Amino acid sequence: MIVSSSTKRRKRFLRKDKLKALQLERLQAIVGRAYSHNQFYRNLYDEAGVKPSDIKSLEDIQKLPFLEKKQCGQPIHMGWHYGLDTFDLKVEMKDASVLNNAERTNTLSHQMAESVKAVTGNTPKVELVPADSLPRASGAESKTASARVEDRRKK
User: Fold this and answer.
1) pLDDT in tens, 133-146
2) Which residues pair with 127 in a beta bridge?
3) Is the dihedral of CA 13, 14, 15, 20 positive or negative?
4) CA angle 98, 100, 105 (to 5 degrees)
C-alpha cells in the first residue's frame, strides 16, 4: 500500500486506482498552471506540440519535453522559477500625502515596478495604498509579506 501525505497526524492508505487518479489530477494541474501562467513553459510545451488538454493519462507524461539546463539560460528569473509571469504588488505608504498627488503616485509606482523587474525579470502592477490598509495575519496563522521578504534576505 502507498501512503498519502494528506495528513501528518494519521496515515491514510489509498487504493491503487485512487492514487493513480490523484496523481493524474495533480499532473494535469501542474501542466495547466505552468502553461497558463508562465511564458517560458508555454513556449517549451508549444515547441513540443503539447497542450494541457493532451494530458489524459499518467502515460501522457511522456509527451512532456525534458527541460535541460542549457534551456534555462542565465540569470534565473523569479518569473519562471516561481511560476509567475505577472503579479500584483501592493505597497503601503506611511506618508499619506504621496497618495494625494497622482503624478507622484504614478512616478513611484513606475519606479518600484522597474526595480522589481530588474531583480525578477517581471514587471508587476504596483498599487500604492494607505498605511495599515492591507490585511495582517495574527498570531501563528502566517507571516506577513514583509516578514517573508526579510526571511529571504537573510538566506
Assistant:
1) 777 655 444 444 44
2) 90
3) negative
4) 50
Q: How many of the other CB atoms lie within 10 Å of CB of 109? A: 17
Please name every residue paired with 13 in a beta bridge, in sequence order, or none if there are none: 3
> And the C-alpha cell for 25?
489530477
CA atoms within 13 A on the CB side of 79: 24
Q: For residue 63, what are the CA distances in angstroms to 54, 56, 59, 80, 110?
A: 8, 11, 8, 21, 41
Q: Which amino acid is at 128?
A: L
- Sequence-distant (6+) residues with CB within 8 A of 114 are 123
Beta strands in the chain, from DSSP E residues, in sequence order: 2-4, 12-14, 88-93, 125-130
Q: Who's near 108: CB < 8 A, 6+ residues apart? A: 98, 128
Percent of the chain with pLDDT over 90: 21
pTM equals: 0.43
> Beta strands 88-93 and 125-130: pairing type?
parallel
